[in-house]
Amino acid sequence: MNEMMSRVQLKKKILIAVSSTGGHIYPGVALAEALKKKGWDVFFVGKKSEIISREGYRFYSLSVVGYPRVLSVFSSVFFVKFFYSIIQSIKILLKEKPDIVIGFGGYVSFPAIFSAWLMNIPSIIHEQNFIPGLANKLSAKFANKICVSFEASKKYFPSKKVVFTGNPVRQEILNISRPLPTSRFPITVLIFGGSQGAHNININLISSLAHFSPLKEKLRFIHITGEKDFEVVKNVYKNNGFMAEVQKYLYNIETAYQKASLVVCRAGATTIAEIIALKMPAILIPYPYSTEDHQKVNAKYLVDNGCAILIEEKEIKKLPEEIIKLVDNPGTLAKMSESYQKISYSDPLKTFLDLIEKPV
């Protein structure tokens, strides 16, 4: 009995703070899975998330909202909720008594990191993007260590604190075996726009399906649309006789990655990490309103290494042409996959775990 009690007492506990989008949540879930296997008690704070609920982790919600970039009546709402979220965070930390706090960026993570600093609890933040967001720039002042997804991002943070870890990817994605691009047809193109979908990508693709008519036997689509465009997109593929699997959202996106030879998507940091891990040829269409145009910077990292093609949203009409070029030249797809060998990328989960289990 005493031995059992000592094991329970020795079990380490970690708080993971995530913001509301998949790009912040999925790296946190990937790390949580790895920590759970090593015996850690993991819980989350953030905004309500179906993704985290499905994973079954203990979860606390914070009241904080995003910072308004322009002063308005909402600014006062932000500050009230911001300070209340710090009080909420302190209460959570007093109740749970974690050994360490990890923040994965976004406005939700700062109250948790700042509260950990006030209470002398070690903390680590992780920046997924090439260019740091505002929340992580502020959190960096209070965190013990700062992890970055790209080696070149180290310059934005204090050199004594910063560590290049890469961006954690879920084990379910790492486990898949994806076929190498070959001349076999049909070639599967996976299209998605992040956790909310991407209306402009959806509409541009279905309105240009006539361009793909000569390739109907060579081409198959997996299209993740988001909620709003699902019915329209599904019906257009069906009415035009294309091989297409259309989904509103796909929690187990590894099933789509496994079938695909080419991906058309935004350039959020978590998507970039996943396609690096899978050596996936990509056409990247950065979200044009991302803060400091960070998605374009993320995309250029792969483009400069020959792994991807960049299409800016203002040039989105080029998309059918670029897809057709690649479908007609599977050898180019193979070269794009091979180009990932140029990218030096650590094992993010191992590096992260080593860092967490050392004294911070």
Describe the structure in your own words.
The protein has 360 residues and is of the alpha/beta class. It has two domains: 2-166 and 346-357, Glycogen Phosphorylase B (Rossmann fold, 3-Layer(aba) Sandwich), CATH 3.40.50; 173-342, Glycogen Phosphorylase B (Rossmann fold, 3-Layer(aba) Sandwich). It is 42% helix and 16% strand. It contains 15 helices and 13 strands. The chain has helices at 2-10, 22-37, 50-55, 73-96, 109-118, 134-139, 171-174, 199-207, 230-239, 254-259, 269-278, 294-304, 319-328, 330-338, 348-357; strands at 13-17, 41-46, 58-61, 100-103, 123-127, 145-148, 162-164, 187-192, 219-224, 243-247, 262-265, 282-284, 308-310. Strands 3-2-1-4-5-6-7 form a seven-stranded parallel beta sheet, with helices on both faces. The protein has a six-stranded parallel beta sheet with strand order 10-9-8-11-12-13, sandwiched between helices. Helix 11 links the parallel strand 11 and strand 12. Helix 4 (73-96) crosses helix 5 (109-118). The protein starts with a helix and ends with a helix.
